[in-house]
């Protein structure tokens, strides 16, 4: 098999699969007679190892995604692929935009990692293609993204917390638990997590405000431009696919990463709200938003450490300190 892999540093978090492993995975998924003839590693993923695999005699390529080994996963990021798989039935309303799952394996018989095979969607990554359109025309993209996000947020869940669990009876419990888990991960990695533990304390003090959120709604996790595909031939931006729902949870839609990013700048992304709808701007909602920002910053710090970006890790302490001052 012809394998085109991405070269990475020896200490990189992501680890590729060998040609023999990819061949074995394809035989497990599709039968002993199936032959993988070519695999190209795709570089957009920051967590899983992702390959576009061509099979002998098949017109359509497939996408193989392999999770990191369990031993290197942080507790707050444990089994994200399993969470995504559990989310598929809850994302039925946007199923036409999503890849179909063809095979999954959590047994670690073939490789010592969870893996999933999906259909390969047509389209080009939005970060690569969106810049080809005039800025004035990109409002179309964000309007579509707002509609997709609204569709997901309209799904009612049975509990609070990650879709695959653990589940919580209240939103405050889920939020406080996530702060505590991230703090544990940071300290396990040799970083200072005291400010994240302080955020957990402040969230507990504001428990009543958090628990004004009584109905769990489905959150996309981290849907933004990097997780979208565009129709390569459309005269204006047209979202043809959405990917990577491994961080989904049931909770307050205002806590979603998508909402944070839509508010980040006053530019063409303001069109997002035309289809999504208006945000709650009450004082209670503003307090919750500061708690959510603290949670985002804590998770970002952990991700930056995983991606070996010490400068960004250092900067996260000042950013979180400002939010904690507002919460106090």
Write the element-wise H/E pattern from the N-terminal end onward: EHEEEHEEEHHEHHHEEEEHHHH
CATH class categorisation of the largest domain: Alpha Beta
Note the gap between the termini. 59 Å
Structural class label: alpha+beta
Average pLDDT number:
95
What percentage of amino acids are in beta strands?
5-15%
Low-confidence stretches: none
What name is given to the CATH topology of the largest domain?
Aminoglycoside 3'-phosphotransferase, Chain: A, domain 2
Give the tally of β-strands. 12
Described by strand count, sense and barrel closure, the largest sheet is:
6 strands, mixed
Number of domains: 2
Q: What is the name of the CATH architecture of the largest domain?
A: Alpha-Beta Complex
- Bulk shape: globular
Helix content: 25-40%
C-alpha Rg, in Å? 20 Å
Looking across the biggest beta sheet, what order are the strands in? 1-2-3-4-6-5
What is the CATH H-level superfamily of the largest domain? Aminoglycoside phosphotransferase (APH), C-terminal lobe
Number of helices: 11
Question: How would you characterize the overall build of this protein?
Answer:
- Helix content is 38%, strand content 15%.
- With 328 residues, the chain is α+β, with helices and mostly antiparallel strands.
- The protein has 2 domains: 119 residues, Phosphorylase Kinase, domain 1; 203 residues, Aminoglycoside phosphotransferase (APH), C-terminal lobe (Aminoglycoside 3'-phosphotransferase, Chain: A, domain 2), CATH 3.90.1200.10.
- Strands 1-2-3-4-6-5 form a 6-stranded mixed beta sheet, covered by helices on one side. A 3-stranded antiparallel beta sheet has the order 7-10-11.
- Helix 5 packs antiparallel against helix 6.
- The longest helix has 24 residues.
- It is globular, with a radius of gyration of 20 Å.
- The termini are far apart.
């Amino acid at each position: 098999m012809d394998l085109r892999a991405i070269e990475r540093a020896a200490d990189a978090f992501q680890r590729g699969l060998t040609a023999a492993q990819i061949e074995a995975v394809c035989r497990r998924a599709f039968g002993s007679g199936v032959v993988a003839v070519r695999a190209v590693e795709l570089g957009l993923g920051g967590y899983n190892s992702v390959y576009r695999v061509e099979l002998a005699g098949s017109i359509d390529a497939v996408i193989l995604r392999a999770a990191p080994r369990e031993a290197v996963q942080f507790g707050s990021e444990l089994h994200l692929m399993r969470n995504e798989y559990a989310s598929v039935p809850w994302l039925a309303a946007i199923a036409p935009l999503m890849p179909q799952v063809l095979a999954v394996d959590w047994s670690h018989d073939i490789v010592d990692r969870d893996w999933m095979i999906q259909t390969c969607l047509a389209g080009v990554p939005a970060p690569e293609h969106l810049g080809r359109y005039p800025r004035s025309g990109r409002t179309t993209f964000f309007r579509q993204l707002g509609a997709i996000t609204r569709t997901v947020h309209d799904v009612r869940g049975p509990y609070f917390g990650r879709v695959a669990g653990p589940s919580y009876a209240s939103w405050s419990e889920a939020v406080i638990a996530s702060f505590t888990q991230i703090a544990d991960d940071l300290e396990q990695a040799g970083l200072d997590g005291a400010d994240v533990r302080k955020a957990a304390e402040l969230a507990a003090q504001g428990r009543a405000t958090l628990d004004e959120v009584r109905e769990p709604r489905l959150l996309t996790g981290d849907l933004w431009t990097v997780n979208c595909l565009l129709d390569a031939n459309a005269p204006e931006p047209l979202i043809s696919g959405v990917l990577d729902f491994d961080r989904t949870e049931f909770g307050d839609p205002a806590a979603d990463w998508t909402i944070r990013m839509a508010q980040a700048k006053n530019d063409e992304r303001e069109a997002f709200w035309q289809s999504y709808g208006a945000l709650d701007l009450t004082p209670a909602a503003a307090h919750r938003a500061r708690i959510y920002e603290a949670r985002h910053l804590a998770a970002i710090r952990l991700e930056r450490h995983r991606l070996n970006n010490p400068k960004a890790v250092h900067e996260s302490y000042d950013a979180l300190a400002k939010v904690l001052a507002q919460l106090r």
